[in-house]
Amino acid sequence: MLTPTDIRAELITRFGESAFLTQATADGMPTLWMDADRLREVLAYLKREASVAYRMLYDITVVDERAREHREGLPASTFTVVYHLLALEPVREIRLKVALTGESPSLPSIADLWSNANWYEREAWDMFGVRFDGHPNLRRILMPPTWEGHPLRKDHYARATEVDPFSLPPERMRVEEDALQFKPEEWGMKRESDDSEFMFLNLGPNHPSVHGVFRVVAQLDGEEILGAVPDIGYHHRGAEKMGERQTWHTYIPYTDRVDYLGGVMNELPYVMALERMLDIEVPPRARVSRVMLSELFRIMSHLLFLGTFLQDIGGMSPIFYMFTDRQKVYDIIEAICGFRMHPAYFRIGGMAMDLPDGWDRKVQEFLDWFPERLDEYERMAMRNDLTIRRTRGIGAMTPEEAIDWGATGPMLRATGYQWDLRKERPYAGYDEFEFDVPVGTRGDCYDRAMVRLEEMRQSVRIVRQCLANMPGGDYKADHRMTTPPPKERTMQDIETLIAHFLTVSWGPIVPPGECEGMVEGTKGLNSYYITSDGGTMSYRTRIRTPSFAHLQMIPFMSRGHMVPDLIAIIASIDFVMADVDR
Fold it and tell me: Percentages helix, strand, coil for the chain, rounded to the nearest 5?
C-alpha cells in the first residue's frame, strides 16, 4: 500500500528532485510545491500513470500570501494555487501548490483533464483574480458580472461599513441592466444560426423547481434539452471571508449556515481540523455524542430530500408526512443542544455541554417509531409506478463519469461504487460502529433516492449503537487551548482570571500551519482546509462542499432528456444553495 513517503519518492523519481519542495503540514497530507510549467504534466501523471491513481480532482483553491507572516522555508509567492487530488482505492490525498507572483497571475487550465475543474477555476478567478489560460469560459461565477475586485484578496473589504453607502447613478444603472440580459454566447452556449428555431428556457433564479435562489437556462429543440447552463451566486454571503475576521471558536456558528440542513455535521470537519492542529484528543463521550447527532441530522436532511424529490415528480402528499417526521428529530436536537436548525453545539475538544437528563428516552422513542415509517415510504412512494417511470434511466451516469465530475456521497454510491469515507478512512470514532454502505446499480434519479432512503436505515443502526454504548466521563477535553480555568479559581489570582478572560473572549492561539478536516456529510464529502498564521483568527478558511461540485453536472446529466426530466434531475442532486454559494 502506497504511503505518503512513497508518492513523494515516486514523483521525484519521475520528474526529478529539483521539481518539488516538500512542506510539512499538521494533517500529514503529502504537500509539494512545484513550478507552473510542470503543472499539467504532473497532474496528468497522478491521474493516469501513478501506482495509485489520483482519479478525483477534489478541490482547487487559492491563498493570498501578501499579509502572511509565517512562511519560513516556503517559496516566495504573492498568490498560491492549491490543487487537492483524491485517490479512492486506497484512500490517499495529495496537495500540490504553485507559487505565483504579481497582481494578475495566470496558470494553464486543467478543465480538459477533469470536468469539474471548470467551476473551480472560475471560482479561483472570481475570488482571487488568478487567470487560467485555455479555460473554455472564464467568467465570474459567484459575484455579479459587474463586480469590481476579487473578494477573497486581502485588500478587498470584508464589511459593507468599510465602503460608501450603495447607490447607482443613471449611467451605472444602464450598465447593470445590460449585464442582466441573457446572451447565450457569454454563457458558453452556441447558436446554429440567427434564424435557428432553438428556444432558451429560463428557470429561476426564484422558481419552485430549482430549490432556492438558483437559475438554469436550458437550450431546447422542442422539449428536448440540447444544453443547460446553471447560474449560481445569488446566495453568496462570503462564508470564507468571514473566517478571516472571526476568532476560532466564534466562527463555529457560521459553519451551521453552510449546509443548513446538516446542522452539527458542518461543525465537525472544522473542529476536527483545529483539534489536529492543537493536538487535542476528544473524550469518548463527546466522540460518540458527535456521531449520534451527526446521524440524526443525516436522517433529517434525507427526509427533506425525499419529500421534495417526490413532490417535484408529482407526489404531493409525502412531503407533509416527512416534515412531521423531521419535527420529531428536531425535538431531540432542541432538547440536547438548545437549538433546532443551527445548534452550534460542537466545540474545539468536544461539545458545549453534556447530554441532558432524559435524552436517551427521547432518542429511544424515535428509534422505536421511525423504521416502520421508512418501510411505509418505500412501499408507498418508491415502489410506486409513477415514481419509477419518472426517474428510472433519467440522469444516469457511470462510476467513472461521477468520479471525473467530483461526485461524492449518494451521488457516487448510486452508480454502484461502494465508497463511504466513514468506512474507507474512519474518523470521529466511526470505526467503532457497524453499518452498511448502500449502493445503486444505474446511477440514475431513482437510485439516488433509494440510496438515501437506505442510508436513513443505516443511520438508525448507528444511533441505536450510540444509545446502547454511550460512554460516561467528560464531554470536553481538559486542554488549556479550549477549556478555560475553573471559574472558582479565577478569584484566587490575577493570572488565572486573565487566562479565563482571554480563553473565553479570544479563544486559542493556533500555531502557524495548515490542516484539513473531512467528513462524509449529508450530501457528500465536506471539508475545511484551514491556514493559521499563529493568531486567534484564521488566515485562510477554505470550505469544500459537495453541492458545488454536483450542480455543475446538470448539463452533462440533462442533455438529451426532456424538460420534466430536468426537474427530476435537479431534485435528485439534493443540494442547498448555501452549500453551493457559501
Answer: 45, 15, 40
